[in-house]
């Protein structure tokens, strides 16, 4: 369950003779707000509308729940995600029926793909009108069934406390994820009683957290016998709060570590055993280590297509230990030699003990360092020969990689970074160092454009004393930038870096590489010349003017000589949101790269540069 919110104490009902508080006589709407207070929800992102409106009246009187009025329901959902990831608590968003509820579908799907604990509360038409195509009716329970852990339609006010308690429990436990509570308007208006805690009724919901001891022992035997092991770390390690245990395991075994896009910060980027991020745009060393491994220990990862590339050619010589709290993920894409169902923190802690026992009993007497000497010789050669890097533009314009790298270097300690999706996301993954958990928030599984700004808003609302930078592309920024108004009016001073190359950058990169440089509908800053010749050479919109109109401080940076000055100026302003429009070179590309649907063996370190791995890796 989530932590209790801080704030003024809520008046408690008088206890009955048996010592239990007497039920409060309230409306369903009041019961909803009281339930949110009791589960510890301290921040709700939402927009009122007809069917949810009864809940907004008692919300106005709550001293324990802060409501942030967003400008679009998608922003509410992503803000709740950012809040959840930055705080470790359950994020909450609220919307009305029909289009209000359906605007939450994208962030709910995003939270489902990335295992983010989220409770979405929606109003619904009156119970007798359900199914009649009433005004602003949508079957949001049916719509979201495939993208939630569970959802509820509440038509009886008496059920509200129990359902809210269950919703928060389901969202936060096991594999975290989104749930939805749809409440009919007449249930919110009806009279009921409120008492806490309710008795939850969740038959069949019993997530396994403790791993099976036999599977742990088998995994430890494989680890100590391997010559080319890799720890393949996914976002589940962060969700489980298992970063300290992971560091112990890595240093105990001496094995190299790769952290997926969703796991950046789970293991320090600066640690000598860290090879970087695997996958389509992963480091050469990380991608190749997985390909050449004889053992992959997957911890809270799911062997998704962006990591494996062409699945039947992925890690052909590796045995697989796959640990995940969700049994449905094990064997879904790659068969596991040792499947382990359990919470990553408990799995890793038990695995540490089992490996120590193997060492103490001398079953593999050779110490890890000499046993892995040949493996680390290869790994270090790949790491040194093909490091992450970039070229400066020949025309003297800003390099987008340099912009992001300098933002990372100049950011205050414990800064939280969010990103949209595309080139800027990959550059932010590569060129900012993440040594602490919960400092990198992004849309991994769904790849949602428009995630960065509202997620940064939610993160800053949950962690007001920390700097939050949203690294966004000009395409992503134009999807949800209206939430800067929300930030300005609610004292949520985030910082936004627009990596402005005037195009849908990642799509343009694919057009460059795979579509003969035919740039169909990827130019953003101007329309086709034959449609509007007057717009030729102009940038629409002007992001500085747009940001200023929404109450932000705005800066434009085009000259590399001004880069540090612009970033330092942004860092110095903390009384309102700051937007920096970085005009960068349009032809910069993300490297390394594995083309979609191809084998990871075909990784390109840079354009027309295929790594030479030699002949001794399969010894």
Question: Topology of this structure?
Answer:
Layout: E1 24-27, H1 28-39, E2 43-46, H2 53-59, E3 66-69, H3 73-87, E4 91-95, H4 99-102, H5 105-114, E5 118-124, H6 140-144, E6 150-154, H7 160-172, E7 178-184, H8 185-189, E8 191-194, H9 213-225, E9 229-233, H10 235-239, H11 243-253, E10 257-259, E11 274-276, H12 284-292, E12 295-299, H13 305-308, E13 319-324, E14 338-341, H14 344-360, H15 368-371, H16 373-385, H17 400-410, E15 416-419, H18 423-431, E16 440-442, H19 452-462, E17 468-473, H20 474-480, H21 483-489, E18 495-500, H22 505-514, H23 543-549, E19 553-557, H24 563-572, E20 578-583
Parallel strand pairs: 2-3, 2-4, 4-5, 5-7, 6-7, 9-10, 9-12, 10-11, 12-13, 13-14, 15-16, 15-17, 17-18, 18-20, 19-20
Antiparallel strand pairs: 1-8
Helix pairs in contact: 1-2, 1-7, 3-5, 3-19, 9-14, 11-14, 12-16, 17-18, 17-24
Distance from N terminus to C terminus (CA atoms, Å) equals 50 Å
* Biggest sheet details: 6 strands, parallel
The helicity comes to 25-40%
Structural class: alpha/beta
Q: Globular, elongated, flat, extended or rod-shaped: what is the shape?
A: globular
DSSP summary: helix tally: 24
Strand order of the largest sheet: 3-2-4-5-7-6
Mean pLDDT equals: 93
Low-confidence stretches: 1-18, 615-619
As a percent range, the share of strand residues is: 15-25%
The total beta strand count reads 20
Report Rg: 26 Å
